[in-house]
Protein: Helix-turn-helix domain-containing protein
Amino acid sequence: MLRNRIKSRLLYKYIVSYLLVFLVPFLIMSTIIYYHSVASLRQEIEQSNINKLEQVENLTNERMKELETLAARISYDPRLTPYMISHGYYSGEAIEELKKYKANSSIIEELFIYYHNDERIYSTNGSYSLEAFMKKKYRFVEWGKEDLISDLHTKIPFIKPINKVVINNEKYKNMIAYLFPISPNSHNPYGTVMYFIEESTMTDLIQNILGEYEGNVYIFNEHNQVIASSNNDRSISSKQLTSLPSDLFGVNNVELDGKEYSLVSVNSELSGWKFIALMDADQFFQRLDNTTILIFAILIALLIAGFILAVLLGKYQYKPIQNLFEITNRNGRKKVELEGGNELETIRKTITHVFEDQQILNETMYLQKPFARDQFLVKLLKGDLSKGDEIKALLSSLNVQMKDGHYFVAIVYFEKGAFVEDNLEEREKLFSSLSNISLANATAHGIDLFYNDAIALIVSMNKLEEEANIERRKLVLQIQRYIRETCNFDPTIGVGGFYDEKNLINRSYIEALATLEYKFAKPQGSVIYFEEISILPEQSLGYPIEEQMKLVQSLKQGDQIVAAETLRNMFSNLADKDLSIQVLKCICFDIINSIVKTTSEMGLSKYIRDFKAIADFHSIEQLHKQLHTLILTICKEVDDKKESHNDKLRNDILDYIRDNYNNYELSLESLALKFQLSVSYVSRFIKGQTGVTFTQYLQDLRMEDVKRQLKETDKSIKDIVVQVGYLDVANFTRKFKKVVGVTPGQYRNLNR
Structure:
């Protein structure tokens, strides 16, 4: 009895609450609509017509831009030169290339290329003489051969409407010819790209946007010719159309043969076209009256539906609450007593405790998450963290232990091809052990470098005044000995200099990269220290070679700060040396050569616009300024290209997984084959970008799809499981319960 009374009281509260929530805004909304609908509806309809017309304009402009872009690409395509397209052997490839260009646009009916002083015209179906083109392939009622040849020699792009075109002796079609000179924007083009577009294609584009619009829409070119039209009102004749004022813009009322029309006009600044919509004014007001009646009918229906919905929602709202209350009291737990006669309060307190525990667990998992740790260490290597307080806070929150003394970076390079698909597990095990290697009086943290088979170790050691370099060498030998004992590989190790601040770790990283330029001259298993590469004859020129290598590596890494600092140090050393003019010039030209060579290797030669100005320097200060500006530009471009490449690759791979996750055959091997990458690289890349393994990421996608279908469809559990890519239903059920906490059937019942 008590339980039923509680249920009734809670149900009553829900019904009243829903009625209040519905009625208050409903009454306010109804009043506003009633007094303002008539006054504002006409303006809204007019604005809607303008918006639709502007959509037609925007869509048309986009399609014309696509055609301009295609013409520009064709003009610079080496496979579509006059020689290639007319060549007996290469013409087939050229025609196939034209077909690809045609496929890039959804509105092109046919694509042609004509070169001046050539008697043939080329299309995706082959080449025709102009005579055959005019008589066999196409027959034009309003376009003669002389006009065609004249138009094909145009120097500016233009559009020509062509009425009643017979194609292959079939029925008449109205076409639109868009002629674009080759090369674009040239005063002396050597040919023309011509597109044929069916007028019905443009009409369909217009109609798709306008929907149920009852009037007519016309597109006029700059010569006031109708390019395309959508005619729903056949009573408007062409003669009436020509009598329309040409200077109207926006919404206006016009009179045609004694009949009033509503006219909407939009001009395109891009193409110079005019878009006009005409509708019978009587039809307009009829729509207004009908809409007003419809609004009242809808309001009344909403009022009735609101009352019914409030009762139904109140009635069924209690059912899931009861289920939740029973869940909190089952499985042998202590029965929770009703507080204040309301199950909601009891459920709220229970769920609050659960969420508090879950929040603590999530925070702990996040702090220990390897992905967050790896991202932090990568930022240290790249020099993205420059503030000591920020680094200290991140070390603490991520629970990463580092000594407060000296820091250096060692890069462990394995022999190319050391790891293949057959020993990926061995590689992952080795890299995992290196990322958490234990050293005496020091800590080491590994970062998997996605390029090649290499790992970077950030080593921190205690503060030492005089024996820091000796201790560093001992630590490197420990690392080398550990690798040899752990696996059968003997990698080359490049070691950068040590620094006293954590925000300078990226300097040591670049130095370590610089040392590895010499790994080809050293036997496998060597240890190369950055300071040792300076023991070379080049020292006699006035600056240590390690600065040159450091500059090259900083350019390759896109590190503006280190590159600028290294260049400044090199020129400062030159200024401090008492060298002859000849030696100074030789050194300067060597610096220029290093930068130019590195820039060329990276494919960025275009940024050296004025090589003569760089080489023809008048002073060391002038050269320093010019090179400083150049390396900043190069570093920025390298950094941007890295980010762009990683973003595109990440998006492509993740999009492919999301599109094919329900394919049972989806695997790391198939992904690697699809994107032409190694299996190990794909595995590490997905882990680096998502924070989880490929298997876990795939399982998460499939789990979410299963949960969605369990809630939204009535499909059997077996069909859903097979559809998302699992073949073993029983195994999946166990996995689902382990992840979600309930079986698929229980999950469906709880979410219905």
In short: The longest helix spans residues 2-75. Residues 1-6, 331-340 have pLDDT under 50 and may be disordered.
